[in-house]
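Appendix B.2, paired examples.
Example (i):
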Amino acid sequence: MRIFFSLFFLAFPFLLFSQVNSAKEIDYNSKYNSSDSIKKKKAPEATYDMYQIISLDRDTTYIDTTQSIRKEHSFNYLRKDNFGLLSFSNEGQTYNTLQYGLNGFSPYPGFGFTAKQFNFSKAEHIRYANVATPVTELYFKTTIVRGQSTDVYFAINTSPRLNFSIAYRALRSEGRYINHEARTGNFRFTSSYNTKDGRYVANAHYVAQKVQNEENGGISKSSDFESGDPDFDNRARLGVYFEDAMSLLKGKRFFVDQTFRINPKKGGNNLYVTEQFNYEDIYFDYTQQTVPSYVGGLQVNRFGKSFATSGINDKTTYNKMYNKVGLVYENTTLGAFTFFADDFRSNYFYNNILYFDTETVPNLLSQTINSIGGQYNYRKDKWNGKFSYSKSITDQNLSNLDASAVYDFNEDNQVSFRYQNMNKLPNNNFNLLQSSYKSYNWSNDFVNEKINAISVNADTQWGKLSLQLNSIKDHLYFADVTTDIQRNDSLQQFISPSQYGKVIRYVSLKASKEFVFGKWALDNTLLFQKVDQSDPILNVPEFVTRNTFYFSDYIIDKKLFLQIGLELNYFTSYYSNGYNPLIGEFFTQNKVKIGNYPNLDFFINAKIQRTRIYLKAEHFNSMFSENNYFSAPDYPYRDFLIRFGLVWNFFN
């Protein structure tokens, strides 16, 4: 079935392209298919601004087929610049977060299991197409040992007012360590429609996605890896905690966002009705066939005693339904005033209620949250501003104030400001968890987190600068509560949710600048971070850098654009968060530091017409450096690897 769908996605665009346009249709072959030997009557040509990608907030970009260093940085599993994230050894596994500022804030309670959601698309991540003709993009990249990573995207318009897109992203990567294979799949279908007079506009999407990871719990003896012993160059010889554990995060979502203008014709004063609907169904499943596990002949109960002697299957299920209705008054001089009300309902549940001697762990966490609020948008000349405030009218005491402003000096220089004040509800897995492992069952009633966040960004012709200031009170986190005897003698790991009642202050300064010397360039991104806290709860490296030195030029009669470069990634040592596969979360620990090692990549990129080709030797300095590179405690970073990939765009 997977092969069938893959062939369908590849063949369907070509079948469409093979159809002959009628005389009334615009002929784009003269620009995009110059190799077509059939001469046709010259017709209006499509321009790049007729191929639009639109976000939920109506921000518009265009399909870009150029090759730049920005494209190099985003040619990865996540399809975006992952500066501030540290990948695990296998593609498709999780990421450790080096830059705390990457964590977005939402006042609503989330499902949890956040370590598994880096490749899990949220509603605000989905983009909608508005294209003049059918468009296809093919992404391919090799993975670790055996497997491949692909992303196939196809967009079409049946009329100028009705657009569809369908896409599927898939990955299989075996990895070099025992029981570390990753398989993921993300299906996306979008539709956007507007009436001829623009009175009604609707965007909708359906998403079905899964992240399936074999979980080995990390290597059981880090000294074997760090020793540099050639016997362990074959990473499959390194002992791991689990040889048959697996996690699966799977979900689907149906989403609609629509707007209707009440007055028939648009004028200086307009009145709109808006509605947004979001239904999502997710579950997280951790399975482990062998209990206990064995490490070097020693019987190990890594997560403590278990109710089951074999065949652990811990499944957590969650669904939510969100409705938001609003009334918008728009004045071309004053801006837009919105008043809205929303309804959030969620169920987070297990099959059974658990009764212990000292506590009872329920099987259901059900929440209904109703909020009201307002929003003001202003866009005129060089100013673009937004102010919104919402507050729950039910018992949860949820609130969110969000104010932002952007000023454009010109096309090359822009300054933006944002302030958030939020009363955030805890994610569900902080308050309720059930597991076959006795120590991983809890029922809590944590208070809301209080978050103040200020960010200032300057995007100029001289470089980019970003300042972020956060103040967090009642911060929720997962803590390592393992004793030294449990850790050292029994090789156990116990993690528990915790709340820090004091204030944590975080500040970061990020600077980006590219220096160009003819055909040579040096692209730099630097991040400085500092945390003010009474106890080591929020741990980040103080300095993170990425520096790329590369050469660019056209060759072969300017038919091929070539980039050759060297990239350095580095961060200072710090007490990195650990990873626990049972709960799918990172946790705070203060026993092991990672970092202070350079990561060097060598790359060759090329562009021929609308095909971009990538070849990279990743972490080549690991061949002659010490084995001191880790993504998290017990989880080494990836070794030297040569990878190949391409992105291919088709326009009809």
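Example (ii):
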Amino acid sequence: MSSVVEPRVTEGSAPDDERTASGPAPLRTVLRRGVIGSLQAAVAVAVVLEASTLGLFYPRWFKDQFFDGGAFYLDTLVIWILIGFLWAVLGRLWWSIGLVMALALAVGIGNLVKIQIREEPVYPSDLDFVRQPEFLTSMVSPVFLVVALALIVGVFVAAVRIGRRMSVRYPRPRLRSLPREHALLVLGLRLGVGVMAALLLMQTTQFNQPGNVWRGLYELRGNDWRYWSQKTNYRSNGFVGGFLFNMPVSAMAKPQGYDEAEMARIADRYTALSKDLNAERTGSLDDVNIVLVLSESFTDPTELKGFDLERDPIPRTRALMQDTTSGHMLAQMYGGGTANMEFETLTGQSLGLFRPQMLSPYQMLVPGKANYPSAVGWFKSHGHDAIAVHPYRVGMYKREQVYERFGFESFIHDTTIGETDTIDDNPFISDKAAFDEVLTQIDDHDNPLLVNLVTMQNHIPVDHNYDDPIKVHGAGDNGKKIGQYARGLEHTDEALAAFLEKLTTSPEKTIVLFYGDHLPGIYGSKVKNDNAGLSLYRTPFLIWSNEPGRNVARQVPTTSPSFFLPLLYDVANAPMPPYLTLLDQVHQHVPAIQQGRLLDTSGEPIKESELDPEAAQLLADLRLVQFDFSIGGRFALDRMWPGSAS
């Protein structure tokens, strides 16, 4: 009677005194122990990632992840498959576990830092910043980076050393030491596991595609994707689930009724309306310099509760706002989102009408197009030269590619700007130097200019930037950062006033849009808790002209930057193209649009289902037009915004 002898696996590097009395472990035992050990490691990695969202400390976390949606189990499964894939490829279990744990630790540390600074978790699109080490080092101290790197490397080394110590319990099958048939069995097993795991992991990259296996599993128990707050989304649906939810996806879902005929009807409607409204407009922007100034982290800290400043850091800007079209912009997020606010300003397109996964059009949408409709092309078609100024590195948010798609003829950055002056110990080029560059460009060009300036002076970190910070009362240790930041605002306030004063005496007509993009990520939990609602998402803006009679006091409701262009045309009393007329009409009913949030003219949240019929129709038309211009057929572009895609 014959019997089957199960192959046994030996680990050549194991000392003789560590051998088990019964001899080498059977392959079945090795695999069983490896499966259990890798699953335990996957659970530990999932816990690390969940801890990085700080969700472990919230009462709802356990209920959401283990009972309501079961996301923790699925997160663990994805991680387990990743470990299995690496095990199949490398043939070393503890190396695979070490690599995944080190990766999880790196992502977890990055997630903690990003949540602290920007109140949002890491996204797949953030991988672009890995190619910008200088930017990363400007966000955190070099000492922190060194410690974090040492910890990550230490985790991997520790896993390898543990693997060596446990080589008897978890021996590595050495193909050359096994009989031929057994070696083929192990090789076939690794190949099969590797292929299956690779196919499943490839599915994660297509998470947002119809019929995706992983999305179906996450939604099997009714996972609620909380896209309006990505931090909450990750906490409720698991770090891995939240991360996969933000995998690349088409910018918008196709709106109901979208086709060439419907876009022709919309173009007819707003062409006629534009003609009627423009009949009463007597101004023009054809011979006017247009300067769009996105002032990094420019806000009004005196509006926040929880602390007091020794003096008002922006008195000149505040006085300007009382005499011009001005108000508050609704920022997309706290502590970040600069490129998104710039995108909305230049295109009139709202992030709130895109899919929630469209986190950064500059990185995820515009570079993939040959050209993209924007104010750049529109003003170029009316005789303007288009110049972008950003006194920092060109690679951030793929600006170099984006500006080329928009049609900018020149991009002035940190190595090409005329002045590179800084203030005290602030490493960033000053706002005064940036404004001086704009003045130089205006003087050097015969044609009117469209200048898009994105400043850097008030970018974080703000620690120890100035020798004379503004004193702060009531903020505790957080007051040091606030005082430094406020002093930077004061420098901006002075530079803006001087810039506008020079434009006042200039013979060239110029109109300036000035706005802050978001609050800085410097405030502690006490200040954040004291300022609930929209307080941490409101920044000042104003539109100023050096033409006599144009500056009239007008307080605008809280506004999204996608509506800045029609407001600028209002100040100039200039005729608007049909697209801006549509934006203007929407703004009169819904002045602010965010992902999952609309504001009415009183600044109060309103649901789309609560809009009156006229406002609902306008918003539906805008959604159709945005789809058409961004990823649709651009059927209405030449009629509604001719020349905008240069």
